[in-house]
Design a protein that fits this description.
heterodimer; A: Rossmann fold; 6-stranded parallel sheet; 7 helices; B: 13 strands; globular
């Protein structure tokens, strides 16, 4: 009788331990409790080449955010393969702007060609390409999407600000290419994201 | 004889009555003309400003182009010198006097500034002539009242987007911008923010633009900020528009503004749209030129009753409905976008743009104190920051 009781008690204890461990495991898994944003992400080295894919002013905002995050960045709005010397990662800020293209005195085809060549050179140099789409809905549509797709097709990490991927285009490309994908609510939150993926960043005034 | 006398008497009676009637009509017409005249003259009366104790000098626009003297475009320029050397910033309000946030922000600066490093030049009524009339058929109130810090009412004028037609009549059918040759509709010939870099022997508006460009050249201005307000349906709104040479500073300011919870869009100055202050002063002078836009229902086409309440509160049920339908470029809450929000955004942005310039180029630092930030304007109201 006692043995039976002990046996039942032992089984309950084992079951409880298993259930407890399972619950902890589930809580720590990306699907439960923690958002995908809090998954430990791959980190990258600096200095970083920062350039635009589409010449939108968003690249300047990301430059500001990167400086506030303390990144060692080489900002080259019209970066080419030659700009890859001495950098350890590439950030492409995706989104087209007719004003930006006009100011840079280049047309859509020139810009697309530049991005393609840059991406190819980065692949050859085995440099990671990180894609940021930070302009929201305003940087989607006929002018921006060819640049967005071109950049997203090259990125091993795609980061999108809320409103920029309501149709799931970036998420789908990331899933197809098995690239990491993160969605962030506000541009200012990218300061922490940049610090996280470039852990050796030192804040600058 | 009796009949004759009676006729004369009758005629004489009729004449007196007619005379009385004429006199009465003349009196009414006289009163009406006097009232209209007084109203007309009143529109040209410039309300006093009360600069802060740290004001170094007051000059006039005509000091930079003598042909503006004794015109309705001559206006006061307030110069604040810091104790330490640095850069020079020029801040304009009232380029469009129908955009009260720009004007009032410049007035708050004049009445509170204490410059510590560098120099700040403020022109609150950049287009002074445009303060002397409201826009025809827009039903704008002529003035609005804010209660100052000491509880006294302060009257501020609302003007027009354009130089007074009496100072520039007639408009050409098309306006050809100097020197680009760009063609715009005729009334734009009186729009100060289509007249840059201006012309010394041009129209009154072109001469005003030229005089402002002269300030930038002669005073070696490093930074120009023009303060505006626009309709909530306008795409360039809650925005900082910057010339390409000013983009670094503008972008850093936008990041800093986000850090204090204020979202601004960064808009590059269109390279092929001429006459705009950020394009032309950026191209024709050494200054980094930019323009700030806040959102106000007063500017929009969807607005309802256009009165003093709309000027100050910017609360409008039609805009609330438009926001619900997703037709606006900015959030438009039911409580509106009051002057506190619009002025607070401008002042915070001016402060952080100057800080960005000072961080990026320490030799051109422009640092100041006593100007309220966004939170201070929201908490205490705009009037608290007026003398």
């Amino acid at each position: 009788m006692n043995y039976t009781k002990y046996s039942i008690g032992s089984s309950s204890l084992q079951l409880s331990i298993i259930l407890f461990c399972t619950a902890i495991g589930l809580l720590l898994s990306p699907a439960y409790g923690f958002s995908e944003d809090s998954v430990r992400v791959k980190t990258y080295l600096q200095p970083v080449l920062l350039t635009s894919a589409g010449q939108a002013a968003d690249v300047m905002i990301l430059r500001g955010l990167a400086l506030r995050a303390g990144l060692d960045i080489k900002y080259r709005p019209n970066a080419t393969a030659d700009s890859l010397n001495d950098v350890k990662a590439v950030i492409l800020v995706a989104g087209g702007s007719s004003k930006g293209l006009g100011a840079a005195k280049i047309d859509v085809k020139d810009e697309e060609s530049r991005i393609k060549k840059l991406v190819k050179a980065a692949e050859k140099a085995k440099l990671p390409v990180l894609v940021f789409h930070i302009g929201g809905e305003a940087r989607r549509g006929a002018l921006s999407d060819p640049f967005n797709k071109l950049a997203a097709d090259a990125g091993e990490l795609i980061i999108v600000i809320k409103g920029g991927d309501d149709d799931g285009m970036f998420k789908k490309i990331a899933a197809e290419r098995k690239a990491a994908y993160r969605s962030v609510d506000k541009q200012i939150a990218l300061v922490d994201v940049l610090k996280e993926i470039f852990p050796k960043a030192e804040a600058k005034p | 004889m009796t009949t004759k006398t009676s006729q004369i008497h009758k005629t004489s009676t009729v004449d007196v009555k007619a005379l009385r009637r004429s006199a009465l009509y003349s009196l009414f017409i006289g009163i009406a003309v006097f009232a209209a005249g007084a109203d007309f003259v009143e529109q040209r009366r410039v309300e006093p400003l009360f600069p802060s104790f740290s004001l170094s000098q007051t000059r006039h626009l005509s000091d930079y182009l003598s042909s503006l003297r004794n015109t309705h475009c001559d206006t006061d320029i307030y110069i604040f010198n810091g104790r330490q050397p640095g850069g020079t910033a020029l801040i304009l309000g009232g380029t469009h006097p129908n955009e009260p946030a720009g004007y009032i922000s410049a007035v708050v600066l004049v009445e509170n500034l204490a410059v510590e490093q560098g120099r700040i030049i403020v022109i609150p009524r950049a287009n002074a002539s445009a303060f002397t009339a409201t826009e025809p058929q827009e039903a704008f109130p002529a003035v609005f009242t804010l209660t100052g810090r000491r509880g006294k009412p302060r009257l501020f004028r609302i003007g027009s987007r354009f130089t007074n037609l009496l100072d520039g009549w007639p408009d050409p059918i098309v306006y050809r911008h100097h020197p680009s040759g760009q063609i715009l509709s005729g009334n734009e010939t009186r729009n100060l923010n289509r007249a840059y870099p201006g012309r010394a022997d041009g129209t009154l508006t072109e001469r005003t633009a030229y005089a402002i460009a002269e300030i930038v050249r002669r005073e070696k201005v490093d930074l120009v900020i023009d303060l505006h307000e626009a309709a909530p349906e306008y795409p360039v709104i809650d925005a900082l528009v910057a010339h390409e040479r000013a983009m670094n500073i503008a972008a850093m300011a936008i990041v800093d503004l986000q850090m204090v919870g204020l979202d601004f869009r960064l808009e590059p100055s269109p390279p092929n749209f001429h006459g705009l202050i950020h394009r032309e002063l950026g191209d024709f002078t050494g200054a980094q030129a930019m323009l700030l836009e806040s959102a106000g229902a007063l500017q929009g086409r969807l607005r309802g009753a256009t009165n003093e309440n709309l000027v100050i509160k910017s609360k409008d049920p039609f805009y609330t409905q438009a926001a619900r339908l997703g037709k606006l470029q900015v959030p438009f809450p039911p409580e509106g976008i009051p002057l506190e929000v619009r002025v607070g955004r401008h002042l915070e942005a001016v402060t952080l743009i100057c800080k960005s310039l000072s961080d990026a180029e320490p030799a051109k630092a422009v640092l100041f104190k006593n100007v309220p930030d966004y939170q201070a304007v929201i908490e205490k109201g705009v009037g608290f920051w007026l003398q």
